[in-house]
Amino acid sequence: MQNLKKTDPKIFELIKDEMRRQTEVLEMIPSENYASSAVLEALGSVLNNKYSEGYAKRRYYQGNSIIDNIEILAQERAKKLFEVSHVNMQSYSGSPANTAVYFALLEPLKDKIMGLNLSFGGHLTHGSPVSISGKYYKAVPYELDKNGLLDYLKIEKIAKREKPRIIVCGATAYPRIIDFERFGKIADEVGAYLLADISHIAGLVVGGIHPSPSKHAHIIMTTTHKTLRGPRGALLMVTDKGLAKDPELSDKIDKAVFPGLQGGPHDNQTAAIAVALKEASEPEFKKYAKQIVLNSKFLADELIKNGFQLISGGTDNHLILIDLRNKGVNGAVAAFALEVAGIIVNKNAVPRDTMPPFYPSGIRLGTPAITTRGVREKDMGKIGDWINRVIEEVRNYKLPEQREERSKYFSNLKKELAKDKKLLKISFEVTSFTSLFPLP
Ligand SMILES: Cc1ncc(COP(=O)(O)O)c(C=O)c1O
Question: Most buried of 178, 340, 386, 402, CB within 10 angstroms?
Answer without folding.
Answer: 178
